[in-house]
């Protein structure tokens, strides 16, 4: 409130880098009209390989008001988008709820998607109970050490497990109508080379939460930004490394959400 800044480096006022119908998200979010994405500037994580480095770390974007963000939501709804997808929203939780208030008064009715890095406090998530329709968290690492090393996030795995359980208790498994998500969770896990994400710990946790979890095991990692400072992150995961994670998931009885995304965009 006095303008002090913390780990995420964002201030009191909302900052947005872009908003548009996105056709690259998961099928249940995209449908045929796209997912109404609003990209917030800054982030509460510092992933060394972040593809949106300029937005998440350098804070690229325009300072906006809750009213202006409400207008963006309405514009995306009017363009036919199936949902409002808030990308990296955590650090602006109160301001986004204020925007939502305006948007609902203007007729917003499509589902709200909370698209975050999974490093959320349970207290904040409890405030969002009954507001968020679809949680779209990452579970980036199956160890706290990896979270500290690659995202500067102490206790990442423990924090993320508590957060996902809270999200699950609020919205449950993914529910769709005519293939479009209206409630539940879509969980993303990005496979890193050299098993740097400790994926073998991630999938058992998700299966223990629900075997009906919708899990997008993503194979499109490629070294970027500060990833080159880490020998073990200087290459893409191999087909074998990615298929191994798929196999773990299937062996655990997880079946929803695996998309063969990696065949076309491996970088070698
Ligand atoms: S959580 Fe996502 S946006 Fe934030 S730093 Fe990591 S990769 Fe970038």
Q: What can you see in these coordinates?
A:
- By secondary structure, the protein is an alpha/beta fold.
- The chain has one domain (14-265): Aldolase class I (TIM Barrel, Alpha-Beta Barrel), CATH 3.20.20.
- The chain has helices at 27-30, 53-56, 66-78, 93-105, 122-127, 144-151, 156-171, 199-209, 239-251; strands at 15-22, 35-40, 62-63, 84-87, 112-116, 134-137, 175-177, 180-190, 214-218.
- Strands 1, 2, 3, 4, 5, 6, 7, 8 and 9 form a nine-stranded mixed β-sheet that branches.
- A hairpin with a 2-residue loop joins strand 7 and strand 8.
- Helix 3 packs across helix 4.
- The model is unreliable at 260-268 (pLDDT under 50).
- The structure holds iron/sulfur cluster (SF4).
- Iron/sulfur cluster binds at residues 43, 45-47, 50, 52, 56, 88, 117, 151.
- Which term fits the overall shape? globular
Mean pLDDT: 95
- Which cofactors or ions or other ligands sit in this model? iron/sulfur cluster
Give the count of structural domains.
Answer: 1
Number of DSSP E strands: 9
Spans of at least 5 consecutive residues with low confidence? 260-268
Helix amount: 25-40%
What's the architecture in CATH terms?
Alpha-Beta Barrel
Distance between the termini: 48 Å
Task: Give me the Rg, rounded.
Answer: 18 Å
Strand content: 15-25%
Structural class: alpha/beta
- H/E series, N to C? EHEHEHEHEHEHHEEHEH
CATH hierarchy, class? Alpha Beta
How would you summarize what this structure contains?
Strands 1, 2, 3, 4, 5, 6, 7, 8 and 9 form a nine-stranded mixed beta sheet that branches.
